[in-house]
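EI: anyone free to look at a 276-residue chain?
SC: sure, send it
EI:
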Amino acid sequence: MRITRILLLLLLTGTIASCEKVLEIDIREQQPVLVIEGWLTSKRESHTVKVYYTSPVIAGAAPSVVSNALITLKDNAGNSETLKEMEKGVYEISRIRGREGRTYTLSVAFEGNAYEASSVMPRLSMEPDTLEFKYKTKQLLFPDEGYYPFISGQELEGIGDFTQYKIFRNGKFLNKATEINLFRDKYVDGNRIGNYQLEIDSPFLSGDHIQVEAWSLTEANYNILADIREQLNNSGLFASPLPNARSNIRKVNPSSENVTGFFGASTVRSVERYVP
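SC: here you go
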């Protein structure tokens, strides 16, 4: 395993004297990790599954992909499909459509490795029926002046609903760590939710177009996204080490390579408008 050396220059300044110290730190490059990821939704469009290996951060190389894998998708209603590789490492779900309440099982096999993941497509709770903007001046809770989005909707009765709200500004998906909006009904089950603020990195401007997609999640998918958000936000000099994000991909053969990633199924609804 190759050892990469990094020189860190620490400059300490004081009122009386200053000094600098060079530290040599050995950092071991990690072995590439196999990743399987994909999502099936109720949207009437094709969906994809990606299979690839991570690349060392220090090397800066693009991840290598897994081509010619045998990938199948089936549901509990008797439907089955073998996915076609559209480009290297990217496999298309073209026939099976997502339906609320059904369970979908993804199987991946290549070079003696075999994996499986299952996900039910849950109902969508707290579907936004209103999307509004509020203009906020610069203050503690709103570091930048501008328009901030708020949604309202009826949360369905029955605890155990989870939702992700994806925001698009002028057609561009906002995917920063601070823009992963997750919702659970643990303390608001069955209530009317009003003026629920969506987190964004920077405010909207007058004339901007916004689209908010509500994606239903299972608890497992919610936890995976919460892990990802926490790890992306866990930065800085004194950041605490975190375990790897949870995964719902499991080995079918014990001798298969280690794997991470997730496969999910979501009911999706959207609301959109222009900023006044």
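EI: The CA atoms of residues 132 and 150 lie 5 Å apart.
SC: 👍
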